[in-house]
Every structure is written in C-alpha cells, then in structure tokens.
C-alpha cells in the first residue's frame, strides 16, 4: 500500500512541477500573439495534454507501468518521439538548422557605430 502511495506521489509531482514552464509559455503566447486565434492552438494543446496526463495519473498508470515492463519502454519511446518532433517542427529548433537558416550572418545597415 505504501509503495502505491509513493509511486502516485512521485507521478503527481512529475505532472505538477513542469507546469510552471508550460504556464510561462502559454502566458507568453497570449502576450505575443495579436489575436486569440493565433494563441488558441497552444492553449488547446496544453489543455488537452494536461487533461490526458491527469486522467492517466488518476486511473493509476504507474501501477500498470510497474506491472508490465515493455509498457515502460513504449511510453519512453513515445515521449522521445513527441519531443523530437516538437523540436524539429519548432521555428527555432532543428527545423531552422535543417533549412540552413541557422548560422547565417545578419546584415545590419551601415550607420552609427
């Protein structure tokens, strides 16, 4: 019983602690985007991901992951693929490097030095 409580506590902390960074990102999207329609995809994605993770935590996914060893590695693989795709598709991530936009020197107009 204590083991299940500790695993649930660690999972809950793992779900709650990263939300600070996510909230900063969502607030930044709301402040930077000129219209709600431009910020809405980020807000909806964050809300859906939060709801899914909370649902998994409540239903006891940690017990299933501990009971089925291959499930742990499958979830790890899905997480790595998700983060890799997010990094490649982001404007400042690997997508920019792959398109050759990274490393270019910007030319500034001559004038005051």
Automatic annotation (TrEMBL):
Keywords: Membrane, Transmembrane, Transmembrane helix. It comes from the Bacteria. The chain crosses the membrane at residues 6-27, 39-67, 73-98. This is L-lysine exporter family protein LysE/ArgO. It comes from Planifilum fulgidum.
């Amino acid at each position: 019983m204590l083991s299940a409580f500790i695993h649930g506590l660690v999972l809950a902390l793992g779900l709650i602690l990263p939300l600070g960074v996510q909230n900063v990102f969502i607030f930044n999207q709301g402040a930077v985007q000129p219209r709600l329609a431009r910020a809405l995809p980020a807000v909806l994605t964050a809300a859906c991901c939060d709801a899914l993770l909370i649902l998994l935590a409540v239903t006891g996914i940690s017990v299933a992951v501990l009971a089925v060893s291959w499930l742990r590695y499958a979830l790890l693989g899905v997480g790595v693929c998700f983060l890799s795709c997010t990094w490649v598709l982001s404007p400042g991530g690997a997508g920019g490097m792959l398109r050759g936009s990274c490393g270019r020197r910007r030319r500034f107009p001559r004038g005051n030095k």
